[in-house]
């Protein structure tokens, strides 16, 4: 429609999780777990048997669902599908990379920080000064 | 000295000239600096919040491990997770607005244990909760009471009219107990503590999500300005 002005609307949305068992269990204790009529959950527990394809498919599913506003993904899992996470650039759902028990948070791998570190590269500073 | 005075007068003249022609140029440079400052501030806040999240999660994992130790590994297991149809007790309210707008309103608001409570009363911006928690931390007077959590006090503050506060607290406690009941009727206090830690982590995550949005918005502004400056 021409001349449509954006309207700030509030809608209820879920937090999705792709993480290890302890992290998912902890957040489920906090009440974020959702199971719909088709037994589809808003979380994926990743263990040693989970394939990269399964993680990719779940990531794609969560980022295309309209009822999910934030996707939490352990950073070590995000590293397995880094190309997919880095190529995602929509504002909602927001992808937040979180640490896990065995893999502390590394700012160097965070997809949001790698997008903005362009500003700190020598090339961008030099080209701005010309 | 003469040269110094001359230099000073040239500088002042330069500034005046800068002001005259460039009242516009001056304003643009000021805007640019403000955008850069905003970007750097939000980046700094983002990193501080991530650090806070890491320590909260570490505490939660530690408490969960303690609960598993006292209750047994078979009682705290993903196999026990409820796969029956149920909706999330804690969810978000997302403001969908044009991300090019300069609105400063948080994008996400966390609604904890909202399934049995009027959502207007329990939704809080992560920023408000964050400020409360930060104040409590600095005061050092917050004591963790068994069976209750500081967030229940926040629920009291948020719910001002309509449903009475004790009723709201009871509902929230019931939701918490329901969430814990997946792991049995009698649960370790460490599991309750883990629940509280992960609730705190959720609040931090909402703040991180809003800060991320501010950071990317400020980054876009700075990038636009840099692109304009390029030949």
Automatic annotation (TrEMBL), chain A:
Name of the featured protein: V-type proton ATPase subunit F
Subunit details: V-ATPase is a heteromultimeric enzyme made up of two complexes: the ATP-hydrolytic V1 complex and the proton translocation V0 complex.
Pfam families, alphabetized: ATP-synt_F
Protein family (similarity comment): Belongs to the V-ATPase F subunit family.
Gene: LOC115726884
Organism: Rhodamnia argentea
Gene Ontology annotations for the cellular component aspect, listed alphabetically: proton-transporting V-type ATPase, V1 domain
Phylogenetic placement of the source organism: Eukaryota, Viridiplantae, Streptophyta, Embryophyta, Tracheophyta
Domain of life: Eukaryota
Biological role: Subunit of the V1 complex of vacuolar(H+)-ATPase (V-ATPase), a multisubunit enzyme composed of a peripheral complex (V1) that hydrolyzes ATP and a membrane integral complex (V0) that translocates protons. V-ATPase is responsible for acidifying and maintaining the pH of intracellular compartments.
InterPro entries: ATPase_V1-cplx_f_g_su, ATPase_V1-cplx_fsu_euk, ATPase_V1_fsu_sf
GO molecular function terms noted in the UniProt entry: proton-transporting ATPase activity, rotational mechanism
Protein's UniProt keywords contain Ion transport: yes
SUPFAM superfamilies: AtpF-like
Keywords for this protein: Hydrogen ion transport, Ion transport, Transport
From TrEMBL, chain B:
Superkingdom assignment: Eukaryota
Cross-referenced InterPro entries: Vma22/CCDC115
Location of the region described as Disordered in the Swiss-Prot/TrEMBL record: 1-23
Record-level Gene Ontology MF annotations: unfolded protein binding
Coiled-coil annotated residue ranges, if any: none
GO aspect biological process, one term: vacuolar proton-transporting V-type ATPase complex assembly
The name this protein goes by in its record: Vacuolar ATPase assembly protein VMA22
């Amino acid at each position: 429609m021409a001349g449509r002005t954006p309207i700030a609307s509030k809608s209820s949305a879920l937090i999705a999780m792709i993480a290890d068992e302890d992290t998912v269990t902890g957040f489920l204790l906090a009440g974020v777990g959702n199971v719909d009529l088709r037994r589809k959950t808003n979380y994926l527990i990743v263990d040693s048997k989970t394939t990269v394809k399964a993680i990719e498919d779940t990531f794609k599913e969560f980022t295309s669902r309209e009822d999910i506003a934030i996707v939490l993904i352990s950073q070590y899992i995000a590293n397995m599908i880094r190309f997919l996470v880095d190529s995602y650039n929509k504002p909602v759902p927001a992808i937040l990379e979180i640490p896990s028990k065995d893999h502390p948070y590394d700012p160097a791998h965070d997809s949001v920080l790698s997008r903005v570190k362009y500003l700190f590269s020598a090339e961008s500073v030099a080209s701005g000064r010309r | 000295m003469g040269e110094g005075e001359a230099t000073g007068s040239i500088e002042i003249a330069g500034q005046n000239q800068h002001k005259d022609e460039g009242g516009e140029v001056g304003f643009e440079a000021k805007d640019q600096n403000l955008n850069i400052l905003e970007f750097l501030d939000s980046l700094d806040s983002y990193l501080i919040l991530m650090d806070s999240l890491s320590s909260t999660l570490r505490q939660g994992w530690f408490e969960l491990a303690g609960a598993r130790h006292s209750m047994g590994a078979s009682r705290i297991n993903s196999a026990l997770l409820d796969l029956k149809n149920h909706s999330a007790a804690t969810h978000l309210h997302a403001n969908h607005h044009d991300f090019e707008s300069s609105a400063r309103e948080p994008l996400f608001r966390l609604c904890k244990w909202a399934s049995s409570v009027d959502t207007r009363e329990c939704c809080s911006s992560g920023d408000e909760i964050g400020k409360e928690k930060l104040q409590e931390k600095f005061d050092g007077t917050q004591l963790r009471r068994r069976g209750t959590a500081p967030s229940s006090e926040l629920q009291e503050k948020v719910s001002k009219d309509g449903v009475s506060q004790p009723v709201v607290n009871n509902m929230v406690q019931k939701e918490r107990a329901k969430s814990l009941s997946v792991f049995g009727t009698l649960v370790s206090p460490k599991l309750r503590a883990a629940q509280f830690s992960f609730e705190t982590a959720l609040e931090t995550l909402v703040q991180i999500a809003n800060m991320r949005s501010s950071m990317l918005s400020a980054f876009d502004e700075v990038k636009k300005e840099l692109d304009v400056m390029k030949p």
